[in-house]
Amino acid sequence: xxxxxxxxxxxxxxxxxxxxxxxxxxxxxxxxxxxxxxxxxxxxxxxxxxxxxxxxxxxxxxxxxxxxxxxxxxxxxxxxxxxxxxxxxxxxxxxxxxxxxxxxxxxxxxxxxxxxxxxxxx
Length: 122
Prior knowledge:
Structural class: mainly beta
C-alpha cells in the first residue's frame, strides 16, 4: 500500500487504524483485538489494532506509550502472501523530541485466499 496509507489513532480507546485511502473494504475479519478489512478480492485494505500501545510494546520489545502513538508522523503498511498465511508488516514513524523513531511490527494471520488441500472434496 505505498503512498496511499492513511491512519487514525484514538488515544481514549488506544486503537490504531491503518488503511489504504484508495480502496474500499468489503468485509472485516475479527482476530480478537485486531480487525483486518479486506476488499472483494480478499486483499487486505486496512487493519485496526485495539490496545495498540500494548500490542506494539510486545512487537517492538520496547515500551510504547499512548503519547507516542499520538505523535505518529508516517505509517507504512505492506502485506506478503505466503502459502497459507499473510505477513502484515507495519512501520510507524513517531516523533520523539527532535528525531523520528521507527516502530516496526509484524503480524502473521491466516491467508483468506488460501484453500487447504485437506478441504477439497473428492
